[in-house]
Amino acid sequence: MNQERVFKVLLGPHVSEKATLLADKKSQFVFKVATDATKLEIKKAVESLFSVKVEHVTTQNVLGKSKRTARGLGKRNDWKKAVISLQPGQDIDFASSAE
């Protein structure tokens, strides 16, 4: 996988209360990913960017909510979420990986 595709696959970490609990207790991390990304591409992107070993990847398509606006009904964009399970002893530190 070329380096350009790696940066297009992972859009960023998904920070939520549930994602924080997964990271603390089960060594699982949640990312927003491109909607056309496959599990294998996501695995390779995480392994190359963070120098960790991935055990398995779970993905979920999240449908955008319908919202009411002053101009009528609107809809948020659909997006894809990936839950990354790391092998025992592995950890992702977002503070040090940004440097």
Automatic annotation (TrEMBL):
Entries under Pfam families matching the protein: Ribosomal_L23
GO molecular function terms noted in the UniProt entry: rRNA binding; structural constituent of ribosome
Xref: SUPFAM superfamilies: Ribosomal proteins S24e, L23 and L15e
Domain of life: Bacteria
Keywords associated with the record: Ribonucleoprotein, Ribosomal protein, RNA-binding, rRNA-binding
InterPro entries assigned to the protein according to its UniProt record, in alphabetical order: Nucleotide-bd_a/b_plait_sf, Ribosomal_uL23-like, Ribosomal_uL23/eL15/eS24_sf
Gene Ontology annotations for the cellular component aspect, listed alphabetically: ribonucleoprotein complex; ribosome
BP GO terms, sorted: translation
Family: Belongs to the universal ribosomal protein uL23 family.
Subunit details: Part of the 50S ribosomal subunit. Contacts protein L29, and trigger factor when it is bound to the ribosome.
HAMAP family reported in the protein's UniProt record: Ribosomal_uL23_B
Record's function text: One of the early assembly proteins it binds 23S rRNA. One of the proteins that surrounds the polypeptide exit tunnel on the outside of the ribosome. Forms the main docking site for trigger factor binding to the ribosome.
Official protein name in the record: Large ribosomal subunit protein uL23
Species of the source: Pseudomonas borbori
Species classification: Bacteria, Pseudomonadati, Pseudomonadota, Gammaproteobacteria, Pseudomonadales
Gene: rplW
